[in-house]
Amino acid sequence: MTSSEIQRVTVLGTGLIGTSVALAASRVGIDVTGWDPDARTLMRAAATGALAAADGRAQAIAAAQLVVVCAPIAEVAPVVADALRDAPEAVVTDVASVKGAIVGAVSERVGAIRGGMARFVPGHPMGGSERSGPEHASASVLDGIVWAVAATPGTDPAAAELVERFVAAVGARPIRMTPERHDRLVAFVSHLPQVASTALMGLAATEEADEPDILLLAAGGFRDLTRLAASNPALWGEILGANQERIAEAIDRFVVRLQRLRTEITEGRTEDVVRSFDEAKRARLRLAAKPTVRAGVGVLQMEIPDRPGALARLAAALGEGGVNIEDLQIVHSPEGGRGTVHVTIAGSEAVTAADVLRGEGFDPVRLA
Question: What share of the chain is helix, strand, coil (3-state, %, to 5)?
Fold first, then answer.
């Protein structure tokens, strides 16, 4: 898609995702207008240079070719229906993380609106952050992420294709699927991780009442697993409430997995435990890399000083050595002063990467 195909986009809701969408659209030359019911949020979003702030919702969508609704789940359906009514030529999409409930609610509201459901293309960018607000937005939030395009049987194919071209233009990867399939899959890979993270953090917090030092012992693994527990509670209450049956099924299956692993451990079935860990490790390594390098990846671990420029020096060294970083994670030490970095690269580049990093004074250890 070129910027001339879609020239005018309106974003309704200028929080983290809405402003990130606006920033990504602006960088490819698309004019973006934004509106938010919270005037202060709208002004903070406009200050990023991502969009022109509209005085009202009707003004925002007046000339839009595409309207992207980035409202809380409970507000998506009425905002979508209003946009379909007030912008009769525009295609309307949304970014809510649940699709079935949204489609049903919009369908009930469209009534005699011209074009109705034909111009509505449900969507969900699979990216974001535990942070919120336009000040944490970035066009890079969309870079390379999967963006589900959950067209319904009543969606005009041309409308779905327009959304897919827009998604590709802003740097994401459109994937077509039904709303029902979307909700089933995200229950496992998005909603369940949030539930597990929250439950684990809650368990540790409860234990802290009797063992005040427990969180002082929390190392990188615990911090990685509980990062999502810092997410917006109200937002997740809405999400889980809108996908109850699917998330309940995911939790049940997760419990079965935990119980099976518990049995393997308590019965001393070490070989089965190792097999379970090995299967999970191999699956995780495939997840950490792009499809072009999933045939084999390498993971290097090293400590770096916790000071400005340290991570940049590491990345620059690999870049100068011709090594592409496929994934990177950093965990700061609770004692301060240093952090542990995990760098994922193509397996064929692991030796070169280790040599390059040693030449820069790092001490990498290959984990995979």
Answer: 55, 15, 30
